[in-house]
């Protein structure tokens, strides 16, 4: 029993043992634990692939938390259908909770430690570079603001990293229509930036 | 070196203008955005907020890629729940089955059958009695028509005799009286 719970949340999962998990249905539960483990592994890989740790959250913690929440939900309601959208919602809620916790942590002041050597500022863009970036960002913001919203939304989603099919699903159009909107919109955006003297840009 | 990538520039711009995580969408909306099932009236608003937030963009894309695995897990859990239900249902039927009172059950069934047959017989008997009563009434009501009888006034001998006198108007000796 303990081994099975440990398998569900590989770290020490605070899940109470259930009477349903004993007896002749152990094989069914073992199969479910296996599927849950596979789901967790897939989630972990995606969390790492999208580098969500950039936002101050630990993918391993998220993965474990999702497994525990799902296992609790499965044990709580054994009567009806279990929907994929519910599984997705558990993942989304767990990530959002972790992001909020990370934000609170970031807002708290770090403890002062005189023994530690002071951190040197990271090597990065110099003042000139920063000024140039700021200027170009201002130009980009201005040019985007001049483009009608119907075309601006697909462009900004594209620049944020959405694929054409994803843009189509979010905006509510076909992938082909999304492709045209993005293509024409980017051309228009680059043209405006060029006219304002910001030069040529890649996608 | 100047970064000439629009995507990179836009993401930095979005990150700069973002005011913390206050603009986070709720989990249901993010799941709907990933599944492409957003309500029509929310599409523009959600698209705008996603376009401003790199982390939410990542989360929506992650959920989209996770969908097949979520479907597989949900299918497995639903299958297990259905199987558990069937087992519990069978157990319940076994539990309530009266094994030691088979004789009593057959006697009860026979009594029910007898009562039913008796009720049908009684009903049929009543029907027959009612039909006989109706037949008797009909027989009593079947008397000869008065119109075509010899006592009918129209065709009686006295009227014929009166008409045989003839109309005065067409007689040659009619004088108006």
Biggest sheet architecture of chain B: none
Helical segment count of chain B: 6
Overall 3D form of chain B: elongated
As residue ranges, the low-confidence spans of chain B are none
- The SS-based structural class of chain B is mainly alpha
Structure summary, number of beta strands of chain B: 0
Mean pLDDT of chain B: 77
Tally of DSSP helical segments of chain A? 8
- Counting structural domains of chain A, the number is 2
Give the DSSP E fraction of chain A (strand runs of 2 or more residues): under 5%
Radius of gyration of chain A: 24 Å
The averaged pLDDT of chain A comes out at 80
How do the SSEs of chain B run, as a string of H and E? Answer: HHHHHH
Explain this structure to me?
The complex is a heterodimer of chains A (203) and B (177). Chain A folds into two domains: 2-107, no CATH class; 140-195, Winged helix-like DNA-binding domain superfamily/Winged helix DNA-binding domain (Arc Repressor Mutant, subunit A), CATH 1.10.10. Chain A is 66% helix and 0% strand. Chain A is elongated. Chain A has 203 residues and is mainly α. Chain B is mostly helical. Chain B has a domain at 7-96. In chain B, 68% of the residues lie in helices and 0% in strands. Chain B has helices at 6-17, 27-35, 43-52, 54-96, 102-141, 157-163. Chains A and B meet through helix 2, helix 4, helix 5, helix 6 and helix 7 of A and helix 1, helix 2, helix 3 and helix 4 of B.
């Amino acid at each position: 029993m303990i081994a099975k719970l440990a398998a569900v949340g590989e770290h020490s999962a605070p899940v109470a043992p259930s009477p349903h998990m004993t007896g002749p249905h152990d094989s069914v539960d073992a199969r479910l634990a296996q599927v849950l483990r596979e789901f967790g592994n897939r989630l972990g890989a995606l969390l790492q692939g999208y580098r969500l740790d950039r936002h101050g959250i630990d993918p391993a913690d998220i993965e474990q938390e999702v497994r525990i929440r799902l296992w609790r939900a499965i044990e709580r309601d054994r009567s009806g259908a279990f929907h994929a959208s519910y599984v997705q919602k558990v993942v989304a809620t767990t990530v959002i909770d972790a992001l909020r916790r990370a934000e609170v942590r970031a807002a708290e002041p770090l403890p002062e430690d005189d023994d530690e050597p002071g951190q040197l500022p990271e090597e990065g863009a110099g003042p000139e570079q920063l000024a140039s970036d700021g200027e170009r960002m201002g130009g980009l913001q201005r040019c985007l603001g001049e483009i009608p919203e119907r075309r601006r939304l697909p462009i900004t989603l594209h620049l944020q990293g959405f694929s054409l099919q994803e843009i189509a699903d979010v905006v509510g159009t076909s992938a082909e229509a999304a492709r045209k909107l993005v293509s024409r919109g980017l051309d228009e955006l680059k043209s405006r930036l060029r006219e304002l003297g910001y030069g040529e840009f890649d996608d | 070196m100047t970064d000439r990538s629009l995507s990179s520039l836009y993401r930095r711009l979005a990150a700069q203008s973002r005011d913390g995580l206050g603009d986070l969408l709720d989990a249901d909306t993010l799941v709907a955005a990933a599944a492409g099932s957003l309500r029509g009236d929310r599409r523009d608003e959600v698209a705008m907020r996603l376009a401003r937030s790199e982390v939410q963009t990542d989360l929506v894309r992650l959920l989209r890629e996770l969908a097949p695995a979520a479907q597989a897990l949900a299918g497995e859990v639903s299958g297990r729940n259905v199987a558990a239900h069937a087992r519990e249902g069978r157990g319940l039927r076994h539990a309530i089955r009266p094994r030691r009172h088979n004789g009593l059950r057959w006697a009860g069934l026979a009594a029910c059958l007898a009562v039913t047959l008796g009720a049908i017989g009684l009903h049929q008997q009543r029907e027959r009695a009612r039909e006989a009563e109706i037949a008797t009434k009909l027989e009593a009501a079947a008397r000869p028509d008065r119109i075509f009888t010899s006592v009918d006034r129209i065709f009686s001998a006295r009227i014929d005799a009166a008409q045989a006198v003839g109309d005065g108007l067409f007689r040659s000796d009619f004088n108006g009286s």
